[in-house]
Queue: 3 jobs
Job 1
Amino acid sequence: DLDAWVKKKDLLVKRLLEMLEYGCWGEASLLSDTLRPALDKLPPELYDNNFQMAFFNALEDRSILSSRSERQTWISVLFDYLCHLSTQKHDYVVEVITYAHRTWLEKIFTIRDDNTRSHLIKYSAIKMAALDKYWLRKSIESNDNIYDKLTRNTWLSFGAVVETQVDKLPLDDADVARLINDHTTFIKSLRAPDEKKKRITFEDESAVDDNTEPEPDKTADRYQHSLNEFIVKVLRVYFEFAEHKQMSSAVFTNLRSMIVELDSEQLFVSLAKSLGYSSLYSWYDSVLKRWICSDTMRCKGLVEIVFVISNYFTDNELESMYNSFQLLSPVALEWSIEATGLRRTWREPDRLWARGDAVERSVRALCERARGPRDDER
């Protein structure tokens, strides 16, 4: 009887927090069903700062400690509560939601078990994306700048957390690989299309045409713009980390799959500009060329990334890149030959280089090594 509980508001708050902190199997579903109608009936005096902080801390703990199915329900409860709180007219709303969102974000990356952490990151990112899109829609509908503040704080938190995590990375290849994999999962989940709403059609209803073109979403461009800026920041942080810590192989071997999946001229140009270069080729000519020629920075992953980026060079720029390969070590040249073979399409500079003397010498050397020493050399 919710009305009776509301009259005993202290007991109601205590019961909600106890359910969150000590709740047993199945109570996530119970709370999910009752929370929104309960919140709508709560008196305003319950919405103080201490209650909000305690509520969110308990929710975040439960989302981590529960089983997979329960965990998804707890995260959904957290999502619903953040949506609800954002519609309330209190001075502390932005502060509390930003705190809760940032804490939620930080916690999902700290779980030791790989499968649990991966699931938490994936499902949380999907809900965080939905939350940001909800605030974008509310901003358009209500013209209330509180929603603009919330969505701005969301992306600032994303960038700040990633930057802090990379800055604190130990110089260990396994730790670098784990964090890059986690960030890749997070970004892929933020990029995932919205889930299609399921609908039951009864016998007396006319069939719904699923091929109908959806109405244009005015929030899509704003969301995509913020997402692209975040992805650029993540990539920039890793490129800077690789150089400053001389961790090229650990970084680029694992970052390669993210870059291949995100493959976009606009993205790479934005990345180059964020690093201080006016074009993709000027970035290559000033930095990447030096790295792939360096004894400390060259690695196969970096060479493959260079080839992904070079898909957007002009023919003259591509020819200049191949001319610079005269400076490569034999092993880096072999990586380059292999990467050339993986191109989506070949252009004239690719064909000219593949038929050139440097490639022929490298292939001959590879064949000699594969054949082994001749009898008269044994």
Job 2
Amino acid sequence: VALHRRLVERDGAPLSLSTLWFEALSLLHGTALSKFDRVESELRARWAQILRCPLDESRVSYDANVLRERVEALFDAPDPGWPGARHASPDVLVAAADVDAIRRGDFELVLGELHLALIAYGHHCFVTQHPAPEELFLCLDRDLPPRLLPVLPHEDAERLTIRTHPALVRETDVLLALHSSVADPERPGLLATADLLVEELDGTLVTRLPSGETHDLLGLFSVLMLRHVIDRFAFLGEEPHAPRVSFDRLVVARETWRVPASELGFTRQLDEARRFVEARAWHRGRGLPRHTFVKLPSEQKPFYVDFESPLCVSMLANAVRRLTTQAGEGEERLVQISEMLPSFEQLWLRDAQGHGYTAELRLTAVALD
């Protein structure tokens, strides 16, 4: 709102939506991203206050009912704040020996990730393969009114694929083209932002469509907000060691170690046999589990490492060398190592030959009015 008022004072009213959009981008890019870092730090600090987690333990379990009062006190809010924040999508795994174990109640749930401001079931792969996609659209109708959706260039090609491309777009949603080269001009419901005007009504910015209908502008920026918040949720900070944390039978954080890349001296050993011996010695000294997942700042996704496999150790060494090569002079990078959970003995999903598979349940939670 303050930006809109400054632009109106500079350029006069009415103000086009395209002008406001491009001026507002500075609020969500560059040095402005430090604001998201501060919010993430505050999130972790509040969870630290709630959990008071003993970091030197290997396993820590909490009664969810006991935590509930603390959570509701520290995260009390009248509403989500912006439309995209109504949704969160947890990836949940079931850790069980087999289906019979699940039926007996002999299982654990594991939270893989919690994606903020994301409707996971809206991905192209889920909508197009759903036996009744109209049910997904009915859910969306209950959750959100018709939206303003910007048609943007696919800048994040590594993450936005045909599989993850958003497909829950309704006929009632309004598509806004910000550039002539990113949208089919014949597409129904498409409008040019340069043709739309922005108004301030009761302290809120809206855009008025040719039909006279108005839309709250905050929802238009949800797509940009999503990029900056989707993977920022965490219960714990980035300490050198964090235990496995459970709320009742739900594991919300796997046991994790963060070590300086320089500590992994075996990665600089070029002789494969010696490198494996040195890696095994380091692994035993650290007391790490055999089966792990490693996350590096230089890699898009975590990758599996079996510390009893020479091939896995070589892959880890190559990745860490790339990481240290990319680091600036005097810059220390951290290697994050987490236990593999579910374990190989907890892969309940089996094929006809009895081979076990990891299976993830993609869920979406919504904040109701």
Job 3
Amino acid sequence: MSKSELLRITPTRELQLKNDLLDAMLEVARESKEAADFSIRRGKIVEVLSIAAAMATEIREHLDVEVARCKKREADFTEVLKCFQEATAVNKFKLYDR
């Protein structure tokens, strides 16, 4: 606006300009709040994902331990089965040997 235009501003026009300025400031404040809210939501999402990743790691470690236990039990069972089969074979041999 030129100086002559500024001098001709009526009180009504001045109020309108102030109102427009306040509207613009309010819009900036809303956008800033939305940006802050988004940042907070993003931060919470990252936090939840970090917790989920930690839980997944913990579950994976627990499953690895359980798999190792199962493999040990399977190996023990295989050893017992082998001994049983050998004992059965010896007993059958003794039966046929008589």
